[in-house]
Inverse folding.
């Protein structure tokens, strides 16, 4: 048995569609928890509208947000996986197929930054990050369509031997600059260390980590808890119109590197769209999220 | 805070009667777009003394993208969704004052220059729910016409008839108050206190 082109294409397409037409169960729980702690009545109302919007999108098989973004996938390949067909092409073709068949049709968001021209295709589309998993017999795919309404507020700075205080101040300042703009309550992903590109990738991957999961590094677990408290103390609230719920979570990862330390901060909006599946050598497709 | 249904167009006096945090729903005509080139064209129309391709009868301009489809010769909205207003900051004072707008809407707010224009003209800014496509689409009664059809769907200048369109929240009033500016100012003012809290928590962990 093998992971086939057809299976990969079909799974990638289905993950994209599902990510647009609902929000992760884990995000629903986080929003429901926030309703319990939010003290502003107006902000509670906004949180309820968010949950109602997500529920109605699922009932009607339509989009929570009309901005379908551009296709972003994270693919991890088990070292025992057998392939049949061109896996890379399967992902490219899956987006073409999605555009041709999805109902209601999605709008054009893929933008050429040099000409401003919009289409469904473009250079380096879809964005795919490839990785390996030792000794696994499956391909693990996460789909996280990205729109830059929240993404545009991401920032990275390379510090010279920073203290934890300097790092925390930077994360807070980037969050205050984003203010009301990124469709809060957001998830904040932070990458500390490594190199410019690696810190950014770590931050992005942390936005995909489910709420409520504990950071295995005690220093970071403490940092996540206090920064969540700090960012919620800023008061921007749901949709940035005031309240206690600005971030549903701050998720941080680090990598060893040089003494000069990049710190990357990025955001995902309250919808926090992501879907994930595993395709096994046996042909079985397991929906993880 | 109150909850009101506004029949468009509203007068500058009605706009001035609205307060930050009021929840409103809209009924009547509005013109919408999510496009930057659309704002450039609209500003050029105003500069050249040309009328825009669609009428702003409801005096309401929303930063909203529309996906519509032609069915039985008429356009029907399949879904709508708000977009970030701040990227249109440069155009909004001119558009608000020259088209006599009393309602602007989108997400994320507008800058100081727009707030001042809104105060002078009697116009409010309403915050729409980002990711509220299913709720907001229910408030679209009709796609009346779409101007500049050479642009992609969400960029066209589209005239809609709304019925109980919302929920919307007054986030900039017609008296120079912006919830966005207030919150940013207050967050900056709290920064030293928040940094102290972080220091305490770090010490507790150490």
């Amino acid at each position: 048995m093998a992971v086939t082109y057809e299976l990969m294409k079909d799974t990638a397409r289905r993950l994209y569609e599902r990510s647009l037409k609902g929000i992760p169960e884990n995000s629903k729980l986080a929003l429901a928890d926030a309703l319990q702690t939010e003290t502003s009545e107006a902000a509670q109302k906004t949180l309820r509208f968010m949950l109602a919007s997500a529920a109605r999108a699922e009932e009607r098989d339509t989009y929570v947000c009309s901005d379908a973004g551009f296709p972003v996938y994270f693919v991890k390949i088990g070292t025992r996986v057998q392939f049949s067909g061109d896996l890379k092409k399967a992902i490219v073709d899956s987006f073409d197929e999605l555009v041709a068949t999805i109902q209601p049709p999605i709008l054009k968001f893929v933008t050429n930054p040099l000409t401003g021209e919009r289409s469904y295709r473009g250079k380096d589309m879809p964005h795919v990050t490839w990785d390996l998993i030792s000794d696994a017999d499956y391909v693990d795919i996460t789909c996280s369509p990205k729109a830059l309404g929240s993404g545009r507020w991401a920032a990275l700075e390379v510090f010279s031997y920073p203290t934890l205080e300097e790092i925390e101040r930077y994360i807070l300042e980037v969050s205050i600059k984003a203010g009301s703009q990124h469709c809060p309550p957001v998830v904040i992903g932070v990458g500390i260390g490594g190199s410019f590109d690696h810190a950014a990738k770590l931050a992005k991957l942390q936005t995909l980590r489910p709420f409520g999961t504990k950071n295995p590094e005690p220093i970071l677990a403490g940092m996540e808890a206090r920064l969540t408290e700090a960012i919620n103390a800023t008061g921007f609230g749901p949709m940035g119109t005031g309240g206690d719920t600005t971030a549903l979570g701050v998720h941080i990862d680090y990598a060893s590197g040089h003494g000069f330390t990049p710190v990357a901060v990025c955001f995902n909006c309250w919808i926090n769209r992501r879907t994930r599946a595993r395709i096994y050598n046996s042909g079985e497709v397991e929906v993880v999220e | 805070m109150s909850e009101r249904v506004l029949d468009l167009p509203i007068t500058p006096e009605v706009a001035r009667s609205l307060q930050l945090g009021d929840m409103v729903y809209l009924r009547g005509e509005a013109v919408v777009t999510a496009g930057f080139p659309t704002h450039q064209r609209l500003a050029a129309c105003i500069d050249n003394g040309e009328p825009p391709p669609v009428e702003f009868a409801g005096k309401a301009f929303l930063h909203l993208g529309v996906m519509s489809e032609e069915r039985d010769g008429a356009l029907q909205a399949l879904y709508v969704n708000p977009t970030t207003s701040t990227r249109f900051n440069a155009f909004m004072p001119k558009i608000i004052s020259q088209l006599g707008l009393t309602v602007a809407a989108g997400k994320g707010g507008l800058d100081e220059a727009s707030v001042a224009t809104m105060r002078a003209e009697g116009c409010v800014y309403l915050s729409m729910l980002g990711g509220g496509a299913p709720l907001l689409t229910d408030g679209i009664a009709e796609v009346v016409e779409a101007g500049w059809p050479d642009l992609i769907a969400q960029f066209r200048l589209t005239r809609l008839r709304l019925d109980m369109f919302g929920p919307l929240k007054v986030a900039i009033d017609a008296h120079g108050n912006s919830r966005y500016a207030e919150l940013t100012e207050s967050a900056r003012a709290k920064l030293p206190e928040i940094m102290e809290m972080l220091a305490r928590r770090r010490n507790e962990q150490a």
